[in-house]
Amino acid sequence: MNILYLHSAEAAKDLLVKRGAVYSDRPPLVMTTEVCGYEPSPLISYGDKFRRQRSLMEQALGTSVIPTYYPLLEIGTCGLLHRLVTSPEEYDRHILRYAGALSLLVIYGHRVASNDDEMLNLADRTIDLLANDIVSAPPKGIWAVDVFPSLKHIPEWFPFASFKRKAAVWRTQLSDFYTLPFLEVKQKTADGTAVSSFCSMLLEEEKHLTAEKEYDIKWAANSIFTGSIDTTSSVIHHLLLFMILHPEKFAKAKEELDIVAKDRLPTFADRPLLPYVECILSEIFRLSCPLPLGLPHRLRKNDEYKGYIISEGSAVVANIMAMVRDETLFPDPEAFIPERYDPTVDEATRKARDPRQWIFGFGRRRCPGMHLAESSTWLAVVCILATLNVTKAIDSNGDAIEPEVKYENMVFRLPNKFTCKIQPRSEQHATLITGSVLE
Fold first, then answer.
1. For residue 430, how far is the Cα from the chain centroid?
2. Dihedral angle computed from the Cα positions of residues 289, 293, 295 and 299, in that order, rounded to the nearest 10 degrees
3. Binding residues for heme
4. Which residues contact 381 (CB under 8 A, 6 or more apart)?
């Protein structure tokens, strides 16, 4: 299989967006979809099944629908703030719980009551399995059966069939991951006890649920769930890291917040009044780059671009990390400079720099849950900035501890846990956090 890497935003737009009919397929991930039985819409071929599931996601997650989820997002964010000040040393677990619990609540109506929630931990284990073992970055994530699909027919006892033996174990965990939360919401919807959610809204619309429609709802739900957890988690982890490394930038954001929402938590109604916070979020999106290489596209037929012939079946990988660090668009690209998006910058430049056009994918494969992910991330960022200080931890000698930043996740760009100090900005802010949880 030929592999083409796109390092520029121009090439990605020309091919993946403008020629979406040709570039919207996926390479056959036989190990994942057939041998392990895991086939969410982001991994399957572009066809009727993909379009049906995509339509369901756009129906329930369009821009006009997102405000209906605001109350759920606010509940989840208040819980995150409370846990961060109660046990700040476990911030990584709290962020995972926020991202996972929020997704479980919005998509399935499942309420997470503790960090030990069965559904939450199942999601954590399974997404880690997918990212670091099954569909991890090359070369680890390239299986012989993906290159030679006929190998899927060999028996498990065959000498070179270790992939079949692994898949037999993984298949059960993956099945639980996409089946159990759906069965829970399906039962509660039938009983009339379901919390309003992505699944319950779609299930309630169907008076006679066909096997095909149930299949599509189940996989559409899991597709959104899988894509939202690590994206949200990556951005919030990077927020804490940047608050430590660039306190002067965040001091300006807090001044803006103190003017708009001094004695309360910020809400979505405040968003138009917080332009510098918007700049902060855009720069965090850019530098965090949750999915650096996206997911590969595949050509449905031969194509020509700038004198080069690209053959049918070639895999096309968008190097999103290179795009968000393009020096022509972002001078000093590794620096944290929210002012890149300041309203005083000309509109054409600001539009060209917006990282949202890349980090959520391209063309017909663009993430349909991006509006929900963007909204939940904005609320978490703005509430953390409004109420918390995140600084360097101090050792026993009174010296500041520099955060050690490492990345080990092979697919999602999530920093390993680093040492930091998290506390309310003041007693007033501590009271505000406690009161928001009790309401």
1. 29
2. 140
3. 367
4. 235, 236, 239, 277, 280, 281, 284
Q: What is the pLDDT of residue 306?
A: 95
Query: Phi first, then psi: what are they for 196, rounded to 5°?
Result: -55, 125
Q: What domain range includes position 176? A: 3-438
Which parts are annotated binding residues?
A: 367
Give the pLDDT score at 436: 84
Predicted pLDDT of residue 54 = 93
Q: Would you state the structure tokens that stand for residue 342, as one six-digit string?
A: 């300041």
- Please tell me the distance from the alpha carbon of residue 399 to that of residue 393, in angstroms, as a whole number: 8
For residue 83, report the phi and psi dihedrals to the nearest 5 degrees: -70, -35
Phi then psi for 214, rounded to 5 degrees? -60, -45
Amino acid at 296: P
Q: Helix or strand or coil: residue 139?
A: coil
Q: Count of domains in the chain?
A: 1
Dmax (CA) of the chain: 68
CA distances, 307 to each of 21, 195, 304, 407 (Å): 20, 55, 6, 38
* Cβ proximity of 47 and 183 under 8 Å: no
Segments of the chain scoring below 50 in pLDDT: none
Question: What CATH number should be reported for the domain holding residue 119?
Answer: 1.10.630.10
List Cα–Cα distances, 355 to 370, 390, 412, in angstroms. Answer: 12, 25, 16
